[in-house]
Amino acid sequence: MALPIAPSDGVGADPVRHVPEPSVERSLSAISSEVTPARSVRERLLGGGRSGVRADRPVLVLHDVTKQYPNGKVALNDVDLVIPEGDFVFLVGPSGAGKSTLIKLLIRDEVATRGAVVLDGLDLARLARRHVPKVRRKIGIVFQDFKLLPRKSVWENVAFALEVTGTPRRRIRPAVDRVLALVGLTAQARQHPHQLSGGEQQRTAIARALVHDPRLIIADEPTGNLDPLISWELIQLLLRINELGVTVLMATHNADVVTALRKRVVALEEGRVIRDEVGGAYHRMD
Question: Which of 1, 50, 155, 204 has the most beta carbons within 10 angstroms of its beta carbon?
Answer without folding.
Answer: 204
